[in-house]
């Protein structure tokens, strides 16, 4: 199977590509920077086509431009992790819709797009795909809107749409200002104190390698469609996550709890219901 991966050099994309290659897929990858892509060990095993999504859309046949893939895993999204900026509408929402619509109109039949747990908004507890989406920040609202646009497009075009809602991830290539990369830096520098929030918030975390594996399984099947929570289904407090991380690193650092306020764009306790994902992993024939 030939799979097109957008956002190939991003946090998720760089991990997805090796998984697709291990499954025997032919990978066509794209991002804006060929020099950045060339630094990855998988670069010589794929076909890389540099491309930047155009704000006004593209008049050329993008399905042919990307060598007519059998499936597409769309990871590209500019400007993260700034979740509260209006550019998610101005620079992402409509350009991405035009981009995906072009591919679908010219022949793409199998599309997987990454969404976000922020589509659920300020709802607490275990979040199910069938529940309401109530995004409370521009990023979540833009992602939810793109999902709705693509659902509406299905009335005109025949294609399979899988919408993988990502929760919290950690691992190699993560933004350096995220919690665990900052903790890694403190460990390397042998810091005595680590500043963080109160740590009482409950979240749903997965290592990035497992996220990449799940995304490949989602993309390479057509049995389960629609929104799919890509998550662990197991809530953990941020404090416990940090304490476990320190224990595994055999590091001793005093946690300065309450130094930072809790984010105002997410509830104190939420995690994903992963039963749909588990059903997909256990019921599809793809191993």
UniProtKB/TrEMBL annotation:
Residues 3-221 form the NAD-dependent epimerase/dehydratase domain. SUPFAM superfamilies: NAD(P)-binding Rossmann-fold domains (SSF51735). It comes from the Bacteria. InterPro entries: Epimerase_deHydtase, NAD(P)-bd_dom_sf. Belongs to the NAD(P)-dependent epimerase/dehydratase family. PANTHER family: DTDP-D-GLUCOSE 4,6-DEHYDRATASE-RELATED. This is NAD-dependent epimerase/dehydratase family protein. It comes from Fibrisoma montanum.
């Amino acid at each position: 199977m030939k799979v097109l991966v957008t956002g190939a050099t991003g946090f998720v994309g760089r991990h997805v590509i090796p998984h697709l290659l291990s499954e025997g897929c032919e990978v066509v990858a794209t991002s804006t920077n060929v020099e950045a892509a060339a630094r990855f060990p998988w670069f010589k095993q794929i076909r890389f086509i540099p491309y930047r999504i155009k704000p006004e859309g593209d008049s050329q046949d993008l399905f042919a431009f990307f060598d007519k893939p059998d499936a597409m895993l769309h990871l590209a999204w500019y400007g993260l992790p700034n979740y509260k900026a209006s550019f998610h509408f101005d620079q992402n929402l409509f350009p991405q819709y035009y981009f995906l619509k072009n591919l679908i109109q010219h022949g793409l039949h199998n599309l997987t797009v990454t969404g976000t747990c922020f589509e659920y908004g300020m709802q607490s507890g275990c979040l199910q795909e069938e529940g309401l989406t109530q995004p409370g920040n521009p990023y979540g609202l833009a992602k939810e809107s793109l999902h709705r646009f693509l659902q509406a497009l299905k009335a005109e075009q025949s294609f399979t749409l899988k919408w993988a809602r990502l929760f919290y991830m950690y691992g190699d290539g993560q933004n350096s200002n995220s919690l665990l990369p900052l903790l890694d830096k403190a460990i390397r520098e042998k810091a005595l104190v680590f500043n963080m929030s109160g740590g009482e918030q409950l979240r749903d975390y997965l290592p990035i390698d497992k996220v990449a594996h799940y995304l490949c399984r989602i993309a390479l099947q057509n049995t389960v469609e629609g929104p799919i929570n890509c998550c662990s289904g197991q809530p953990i407090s941020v404090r416990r996550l940090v304490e476990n991380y320190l224990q595994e690193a055999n590091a001793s650092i005093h946690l300065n709890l309450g130094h930072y306020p809790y984010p105002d764009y997410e509830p104190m306790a939420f995690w994903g219901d992963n039963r749909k994902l588990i059903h997909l992993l256990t019921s599809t024939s793809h191993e």
